[in-house]
Amino acid sequence: MDQETDITSLAIQEAQLVLAEKRTSLAVMRTGIAVLALPLSVMSVLIATSKYYDVFHVLHFLVPLVVLSLALIIFGVYLIMLSIIRMRHYDRLIHEIKKKHGVIGKFIE
Predict the structure, then answer these.
(1) How many alpha carbons fall within 13 Å on the CB side of residue 84?
(2) Per-residue pLDDT tens listing for the chain (109 residues)
């Protein structure tokens, strides 16, 4: 019975580790969404206030801003996609742990 308890304890620790990594991936996704929202909000403010300035007079400001915004959009999409890929991997690991150790399978959906 002691060996069975050790195996169950090890399985629970494995599941906790994978779930902690999944929470980290969710935090990365949240960061990616925030990074993605920043350029969109800046561009919406620029569009809303566009009647107060002439684009050709402030072009030297707008070009670097657009380049920076594109870089932030690419970085945000990268973070989101990376976290989705990692979460799918962690879901597969959790599924394997559930199949391997039927005792804890009923506690993890």
Answers:
(1) 8
(2) 577 788 888 888 998 999 999 999 999 999 999 999 999 999 999 889 888 888 889 899 899 999 999 999 999 999 999 999 999 999 999 999 888 887 777 777 6
Contact 98, 19 (CB under 8 A): no
Q: Are 80 and 87 in contact (CB under 8 A)?
A: no
The DSSP string of 32-47 is HHHHHHHHHHHHHHHH
How far apart CA 71 and CA 3 sit, in angstroms, is 54
Residue 32 CB neighbours (<10 A) = 20
pTM higher than 0.70 for the full model? yes
Q: What count of other Cβ atoms lies within 10 Å of the Cβ of residue 55?
A: 9
